[in-house]
Amino acid sequence: MSLEIEAGAWLTATGIETTVYVGDVDTPQVVKIEFLETLIDQALESYEFEGKIANIHKEEVEQLLAMLKNASEYAEKKVREML
């Protein structure tokens, strides 16, 4: 006996949507949406100390901001190519 399980993540207008299909079905059994704002808040809160970004984490925060900026620029470039 075998059981097919398919999981995937998609970037949507609100965040990251993860779906899980179990068996030969057309509708996912699990759908989980992680909102971008929540993910950003969680990431930044992990770097804070007493309500401020701790000095030891400033470089990591700059890297996070650079990654988000690069992702935005990449998405804009791909859209222009596809229009």
- Total tally of structural domains: 2
Number of helices: 2
Question: Strand order across the biggest sheet?
Answer: 1-2-3
Estimate the mean pLDDT confidence.
Answer: 95
Low-confidence stretches: none
What does this entry look like structurally?
The chain is of the alpha+beta class. It folds into 2 domains: 35 residues, no CATH class; 37 residues. The protein contains 2 helices and 5 strands. The strands form 2 sheets. The protein has a 3-stranded antiparallel beta sheet. Strands 4-5 form a two-stranded antiparallel ribbon.
Give the tags.
83 residues; two-stranded antiparallel ribbon; alpha+beta
Write a short abstract of this structure.
With 83 residues, this protein is an alpha+beta fold. It is built from 2 helices and 5 strands.
How are the elements arranged and paired?
Layout: E1 5-11, E2 15-22, E3 30-35, H1 36-45, E4 48-49, E5 52-53, H2 58-82
